[in-house]
Amino acid sequence: AMAGDGGGNAEHGGSPAPQRVLFPPTFSVSEIKNKQRRHFMFLRWKQQQRKEKLAAKKKRRKEREALGDRAPPKAIPKTIENQRVYDETTVDPNDEEVAFDEATDEFAPYFNRQTVPKILITTSDRPRGRTVRFCEQLATVIPNSHVYYRRGLALKRIIPQCIARDFTDLIVINEDRKIPNGLVLSHLPDGPTAHFRMSSVRLRKEIKRKGKEPTEHVPEVILNNFTTRLGHSVGRMFASLFPHDPQFIGRQVATFHNQRDYIFFRFHRYIFRSEKRVGIQELGPRFTLKLRSLQKGTFDSKFGEYEWIHKRREMDTSRRKFHL
């Protein structure tokens, strides 16, 4: 049922006001049989919902301005992140067991400054142009990294050669139909090895308003939201790729931001406009990672022992359940 509510009158010289649709409380658009009419009424209903939401927002803003300092604090909106299901493996920085694990795990020599990172970046067998360019740009982000293009050489033969040449980490970029779609990160010589699904890869020339080429300064590393024991281990893997002492004079920062178990990588440069204002300028490349598995030791697809494997049907029981 609809009723027109006109505020003006064309006979007295005023332009007719637009008609407002009044829907009864029990109205359901899905009950309309005609497809075109149903679509039209749905659009009108959505428009009315938007107007009511905007009017309520303006009313709340005026009330807050009228109350001034006596206004109640703003309500925190509910999101998937802040409604997250509690994970019993969440890391407490003051926990003695966590401190012991950090002091004895495979990355302890790096954090104790006993080893300097040396990274080998390689690809799947016979890479295509886009993957090659991505590896070259990734090498400008990670200091002391070297690119090797595979041609028929198995990873099991590459890993002993890396260990003999004092490489601390191996990064393998996999591709499918000329598009990078996977990343394998193996810490040498004793592991662990993480396998990620890669998506949303953007090279430097594909980023709008990109800055100049990155310099050779050691960037600052920011790790966000790696809260569980698994996330803590993955975050330490990423941290061990970069030298421990950043050169802040370069104003470059590499960010690994975990949100809903998706790891977003961004590479920026700080732009200091004044003493109080600072901006950021993206340098690229950018990509998104999703952890598939964490394996003990170095890469071994047949006989490797896995610490964690993502099993969607068993693990993803709730949209608010996250593992990192």
Please give the share of residues in helix.
25-40%
Distance between the termini: 51 Å
Binned strand content = 15-25%
Global shape: globular
What is the string of helix and strand elements?
A: HHHEHEHEEEEHEEEEEH
The overall number of domains is: 2
Instruction: Show unreliable segments.
Output: 1-10
State mean pLDDT (0 to 100 scale).
87
Tell how many strands the DSSP assignment holds. 11
Total helical elements = 7
CATH architecture of the largest domain: 3-Layer(aba) Sandwich
CATH superfamily of the largest domain: Brix domain
Main pleated sheet:
11 strands, mixed
Secondary-structure-based class equals alpha+beta
CATH fold label of the largest domain: Rossmann fold
What oligomeric state do these chains adopt?
single chain
Integer-rounded radius of gyration = 27 Å
CATH first level of the largest domain: which class?
Alpha Beta
Biased composition (Basic and acidic residues): 63-72
Keywords: Ribosome biogenesis, rRNA processing
Domain Brix: 117-300
Region (Disordered): 1-22, 47-78
